[in-house]
Amino acid sequence: MPIKQWNSLTQMFFDQATTLGGKPLLFSKQSGNWQSVSWKHVAEKVTQFGTALRAMGVVAGDRVVIVSENRPEWMIADFAIMSIGAVSVPTYTTNTVRDHLHIIENSGAKAAVVSTKNLARTFLRAAHQCDELQHTIIMQPYTVEQQLNVTIYNWDSVINAQQPDIEGFQAGCVDVTRDDIACLIYTSGTGGAPKGVMLHHGSILHNCDGASDIIERLGLDGNAFLSFLPLSHAYEHTAGLCWPLAIGAEIWYAESIEKLAANMAEAKPTIMVVVPRLFEMLRTRISRTIQSEGGMKAKMFDLAIALGTKRLQHGQPLSFKEKLQDWFLSRTVRRKVQKQFGGRLKALVSGGAPLSPDVGYFFSSLGLPLLQGYGQTEAGPIVSANPPWATKMHTVGKIFKNIDAKVADDGELLLKGELVMKGYWRDEKATSEAIIDGWLHTGDIGQIDEDGYLELTDRKKDIIVNDKGDNVSPQRVEGLLALEDEIAQAMIYGNSRPHMVALLVPDAEWLVSWAKENGKSAARLEKLADDKDLRKAIDAAVSRINKRLSNIEKVRKFAIATEAFTIENEQMTPSLKLRRHVVKEVYKDTLDGLY
């Protein structure tokens, strides 16, 4: 059945489960071995958990929070909640008590699902302070010595108490429609408190349809996804969960980011949903490893990149000699790299932040198509993606079908269509500012070419306007700086100022090596941030980039941060976006002191 004909995500899942039955769907590591569960088994568990929620008094429209790392139970909980017409509220496992309290109170959640004891300890501190939250189901055995303001249940006990009557359960789910709210996805909050984005079933199904259309030529059958980005983010929830279900693919849950390389080799995924930061780091690591080995291996690797880039970036035909070299390199260098990624990859779909074209060409030249896409939570979240057969690396891809898109007079991208959210939960003011006459005002600045490809330059609110009225795109300059070996992270500063300055975080591996070579006793940022020799080394990298920038973009001065921008210090969102307002607040005196 075509995706566009399904009435809800619920109907989509149960239809697929009926068709695919005993085929494996979800894979996870159990006691060191990969274990799979079939479509039919998952459908039974969704039925049992949905029935249990109904027994607890959860009805259509009620909100249910999910606090869990990626695992099969996450998917089961999500679809059980949506199946009974309730609203799933995914949250990050990195949330603090304050974060949880805001989401529980703002959403008015009636129930919650939590995975581990550690996550439960944090969550329950918030849950105990809320009157509306009544039930919390915990996947691991958990006991409390004191009565709380919420009833605690065990996941296995709740599920095993129900009969898996799939047919009877489905009969009670027919009232769920494309127009109903499927989930509340709380934005990461780069500029303040997170807002709950109301995504309806039709919005996500619209995304799935457009994504399938983009990669149809690669084959929609026999696919396997490796899921490692947090499912609490709209990008992974749609592209790493709902879309695989829509095309009947397997979903493998990575153990952790640290074990991602090993998991790729084991799972052999065909499609991965990724963020640019991961591949920026992988590019640096791969290049360093190859160059440190030197010799013929390094020369062959460099030639593979050069020939691949010539074909992809410049569209230049290869000479007869180059074709032979390219053929040989595809069966040696590229095949070896591809094997490290499982050997079956059709596409790495990058989103969530801007991808440097250099990074895209690097991996695509190695036979690993890295396709940049674009979206935002308020649009389901996917708006565009580069087709593998017609990639324009400097763009964020071709806008999906059945989307009306236009660029306003001030350059802002506007969108209209089924993918647009219902609005922000309990925030009519913010909703009316974001959606005007049906058009979603994305806050992104860009242009659409004659082929329907979207090129973005920056966030409208992030654009820096200097004291002369010139506009500077910080993300472009920051991206170039972060690709230098010496620099891991960068933030540009200069609004209403005469020139640009930067706050820089040195690359950790490079810093260790540099400290050793220069006789420094420690390679810790807090000890070296004011070191004159380190500043000189970083200045060389900044000077290289300045040669590629216009006068208004050039970084005239910089400071070195005392620690990396991380999720833990709240200077990065869980989706690895820079929280500029936090960084500016922490380093305000330092940044102002550069002028």
Describe the overall structure.
The protein has 595 residues and is an alpha/beta fold. Among the domains are: 9-176, Rossmann fold (3-Layer(aba) Sandwich), CATH 3.40.50; 464-592, ANL, C-terminal domain (GMP Synthetase, Chain A, domain 3, 2-Layer Sandwich). The protein has 22 helices and 27 strands. The strands form seven sheets. Strands 4-3-5-6-7 form a five-stranded parallel beta sheet, with helices on both faces. A five-stranded mixed beta sheet has the order 12-13-14-15-16. Strands 17, 18, 20, 21 and 22 form a five-stranded antiparallel beta sheet that branches. Helix 11 packs across helix 12 (295-312) and helix 12 packs across helix 13 (320-330).
Which second-level CATH architecture of the domain at 9-176 applies? 3-Layer(aba) Sandwich
Estimate percent helicity.
25-40%
> What is the average per-residue confidence, as pLDDT, rounded to a whole number?
91
What is the CATH level 1 assignment of the domain at 9-176?
A: Alpha Beta
Based on DSSP secondary structure assignment, what is the total number of beta strands? 27
Q: Give the overall silhouette.
A: globular
Helix/strand structural class: alpha/beta
Biggest sheet record: 5 strands, parallel
Stretches with pLDDT under 50, minimum 5 residues:
none
By CATH, the topology of the domain at 9-176 is Rossmann fold
- Name of the CATH superfamily of the domain at 9-176: ANL, N-terminal domain
Strand order of the largest sheet: 4-3-5-6-7
Distance between the termini: 62 Å
Write down the Rg.
Answer: 25 Å
What is the count of helical runs?
A: 22
- Strand content is 15-25%
